[in-house]
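In this section we walk through a basic example: taking a raw amino acid sequence and producing a predicted 3D structure, encoded as C-alpha cells. The instruction is simple. Fold the sequence below.
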Amino acid sequence: MQWKNGDTTNGQVVAGGNGQGNGLHQLFRPTDVLIDKETDSLIICDWGNSRVVR
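The resulting C-alpha cell sequence is shown next.
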C-alpha cells in the first residue's frame, strides 16, 4: 500500500492484489521489499517465483 501526505485512510495498492501465482502481474511468497531512492523504485524479492521484481 502507498499512502500520500500522511493520509492513512486512502491508500493505493502498488504491489500484489492479483492473487498468488507465477504471472508477471502476480507474486508468490515475497520475502523482502527494498526501496531504491536513486531510481525511485520498489524492489520485491519474490522467493516463490525465484525472481526479483522492480
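Looking at the output, two observations stand out. Residues 1-54 form one domain. Residues 28 and 48 are 5 Å apart (CA to CA). In the next section we compare this with other chains.
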